Amino acid sequence: MTLRTLTVVVFILMGTIAVVLVVLPYLRRGALAPAGETFTRLTRTRPARLAFVLVWAWLGWHFLAR
Questions:
Q1: pTM of the model
Q2: Domain ranges for the chain
Q3: Contact 52, 63 (CB under 8 A)
């Protein structure tokens, strides 16, 4: 397995997990909090929002800018 193939497989796996985490709360009420509610709780304070923006910028810079 080449590094490129491994990278594609990991991205597909992460996308699948993300879709499951978004859909699961609507299929089984009470199993998990919906993604929007979770995001709202995580970014409630200013330092948390700043940390989120910095992590997002770091990820974009290192993985998407080529």
A1: 0.56
A2: 3-64
A3: no
